[in-house]
Amino acid sequence: MYLYNLLKGVRLLESRAFFSGSQLKWLAVFAMLLDHAAKIISFQPSLTLAVPYGTEPNKLVEISQRLVPLFILFGRLAFPLFCFLLVEGFIHTSNVKKYALRLFLFALVSEIPYDLAFSHRFIDLENQNVFFTLLIGLIVIIGLEKLRTLTKIKYFCAPLLILVGIFLAEWLRTDYGGWIGVLLIVSLYLFRDSTLFNCILGGLILLQNSWFGPLAFVPIYFYNDQRGRQWKYFFYWFYPVHLLVLLTIQQFLIALKMN
C-alpha cells in the first residue's frame, strides 16, 4: 500500500510537469547573466564611486557586496540547464552536423569577448569559453549514438570516447572542463530515459563544483517535453553580446572612479 501511494505520488508530480524548453532556456540565461554580472562588473568598492577616506562604505557598496555571492550562487543553475537543453537539442535536431557547426562557430565568435571579459586579454589560450565544452560534449554523444549499432566493440570504444572527450576539455581548459561539463552531458544523454535517476546522477556530478547547482534539476525534472517558443539565434548571440555589454559597464565604472 505504501509503495502504491509512493508511485502514485511520483506519477502525480510528473503529470504536473510544466517547464517547456524555452522556459528552461530563459531561466538559464537569467542565471548566467547574474553570475557574469557579479564576476565581470564585480560590484566591488574598487569599481564603484570613490568613498572618502575614513568614512564607512556607502549603502550601495554594502548592498552590492551582499549581492555578489547571491548572484554567483544563483548562476550555478545555468550550466546544467544548458547541458540538458543541449542533449534535448541533439535528440530532436533534424541535422546534427549543422547543430555542431553552429556551436563551433559561436565558440569562435565568443572567445574574444570571453577572454576580454574574464582575463582582460584579446586572446587568452589558457581558458576557453563554455561553447567549447558544449561542443566537445555534443561530439562525444554523437559518437556514442553511432556506437549503438555496433555489438561487442562498443563496450570498449564508448568508455574510450568518453575519456577522450573529458581529457580534451581538461587539456583545453574549457569552462566547466571535462570531469564536470563533458561528464554531465554524457550522463544526461545515457540516462535520458530515467528522469529521476538522471537528475540524481547529474546532481552528484555537479557537487564537484557547487552544492547549489544540483537544484537546477528541479525544473529539469518538471520538463514537459515541449520546445515552447523558439528564439534559437537569440540565445546563441546572447552569450558573446552580454559579455561585451558587461565589459563595457565594467570599464565605464573603472574610468568613473579614476576621474
From TrEMBL:
Keyword presence, Endoplasmic reticulum: no
The name this protein goes by in its record: Conjugal transfer protein TraX
Source species, domain of life: Bacteria
Residue spans crossing the bilayer: 67-87, 99-116, 128-144, 153-170, 176-192, 199-222, 234-256
Keywords tagged on the record: Membrane, Transmembrane, Transmembrane helix
Organism: Enterococcus ureilyticus
Keyword Membrane set for record: yes
InterPro entries per the UniProt record, alphabetical: TraX
